[in-house]
């Protein structure tokens, strides 16, 4: 058995983080998971071209999935902090950097690390 390359480890870790957030938001349906897989394929190529960008993969994957969901279904993830006003989506910060977080620009707060939305919303829902 061959060892898993650092690139594949980073891609699998990023995939797991985004899937955890999708599960927390109860939107991890098969077609949405397919969006994650499509993004992983695209980001694999991107990191192969720019290996120094490997630490940015989790945030980029989260943004890719967020964009794909917006185009097909609507805003995700919705802000769990702001209870008044129109529902709005969180943003990933930094846009290109390590240690990505979901942030609410309206309230000016970090809500959760990418992969930890379940804890920000009071825990992952039980099925």
Brief summary of the model shown:
By secondary structure, this protein is mostly helical. It contains 4 helices and 3 strands; from the N terminus they run H-H-H-E-E-E-H. Strand 1 and strand 2 form a beta hairpin.
Task: Please describe what this structure looks like.
- Helices cover 46% and strands 9% of the residues.
- The protein is globular.
- α1 packs antiparallel against α2 (30-49), α1 packs across α3 and α2 crosses α3.
- The chain is built from 4 helices and 3 strands, in the order αααβββα.
- The model is unreliable at 122-127 (pLDDT under 50).
- The chain has helices at 6-24, 30-49, 57-72, 117-120, and strands spanning 91-93, 101-104, 109-113.
- The chain has 127 residues and is mainly α.
- It has one domain (6-120).
- A 3-stranded antiparallel β-sheet has the order 1-2-3.
